[in-house]
Amino acid sequence: MYLRWLCVVIMLFPGCSSSEGSASDFDGERAFRDLESLLEVGRRVPGTEGSRQAQKFIIDNLRGAGLKIEEYGFKALTPLGTIEMNNIVGIVEGTQPGVIILSNHYDSKYFPDFKFVGANDGGSTTAWMLEVARVLGGKRNGHTIWLTFFDGEEAIQEWTDTDSLYGSRDMVLKLRTNGMLDQIKAVINVDMIGDKQLGILRDPDAPEWLRKPIWDTAKELGYGNHFLRETLVIEDDHLPFRRANVPAINLIDFKFGGGSREHDRNWHTANDTIDKVSAESLQIVGDVILSALPAIEVNIRKMGSRN
How far apart are CA 218 and CA 304, in angstroms? Predict the structure, then answer.
């Protein structure tokens, strides 16, 4: 009953409204063009040629935006054997100590019986992050930002604690091993935010000091209808960080198309194609996150002063 009621609420807002002009330098149309280019690669299943082409596309664009690149390759033990995967980090060097991670996954889920390109699920956020890289450039005032592109978020077969989140689990392990985990002040993970029927659900387990600036900013910019009051717990790439006691929030539209029937037709099906994605939705999320960053950083400093 709860999920059906939730769907009704989201369907009250079937389109993505837009304010006059833009609240940031983020260009949703340019992000959409990047998505078109990324989808020319086709499937981005870990360990495949499509994945390697996607990695090159990401790295070339991050480098073009002036960011330093770090790659974190690893071998993942999956139900189909060992697969080589690769996390990519674009570094925006800051003037303040500590790191904020903005993350997404670039892989597309493996389906043996049909072509799944994941235009929204993995594709939209990859293109969104590349546009964020262009806006931020290689240096900024404030905390260093790692634009982190995770490989292997999707289950290779069926979602379990061991068959999922390969990239983010490996990243947390590496950061713990090299002593960098304590430097991560917050993780903001984005997933499936290109949906034309944009409705981002609240992550009920996110700290209020991290969630509130995002929702307040959305309301101030006139995007409140797209950052919803309804909550839903979703396992995603923020989870390994949260389990490691790093403050994290997941921003996801998990009603792909606006309701349960549309979601079932679109999510993890051959229907997850670019016609379901909107440049305006990418713009909305870009405006909100970039505009909310200063308030989030103020809260990080406040939290640090209490420790």
Answer: 25
Domain count, the chain: 1
Residue 81 within a domain:
yes
For position 192, which CATH number holds? 3.40.630.10
Q: How many CA atoms lie within 13 A of 20 on its CB side?
A: 0
**CA 274 centroid distance within chain:** 17
- Residue 9 domain-assigned? no
d(CA 181, CA 165): 18
Q: Is the full-model pTM beyond 0.70?
A: yes
Question: Number of C-alpha atoms within 13 angstroms, CB side, residue 137?
Answer: 4
Tens digit of each residue's pLDDT (9 = 90 or more) over 131-171: 999 999 999 999 999 999 999 999 999 999 999 999 999 99
Query: What is d(CA 164, CA 192) in angstroms, rounded to the nearest whole number?
Result: 17
Instruction: Locate 75 and state its tokens.
Output: 């071998």
